[in-house]
Amino acid sequence: MYAAGHGDSRPNSGVTQMVAPQFVNEIFDAAIGYEAIAPARDE
Q1: Number of domains the chain contains
Q2: Within a domain: residue 42?
Q3: What is the pTM of this model?
Q4: What are phi and psi of 9, to 5 degrees?
Q5: pLDDT digits over 7-40, tens only?
Q6: C-alpha angle with apex 17: 4 to 2, nearest 5 degrees?
Q7: Which residues contact 18 (CB under 8 A, 6 or more apart)?
């Protein structure tokens, strides 16, 4: 239903535009959360 084409299971552009911003927000939130609990390392 959301495939890019017949025989192509990748998501089509409509789904990508809908999901990508949510995915990016989740990744950023996870990174910020990790920074809050991970000890700082000086290299």
Answers
A1: 1
A2: no
A3: 0.57
A4: -85, 0
A5: 887 878 888 889 999 999 999 999 999 988 877 7
A6: 30
A7: none
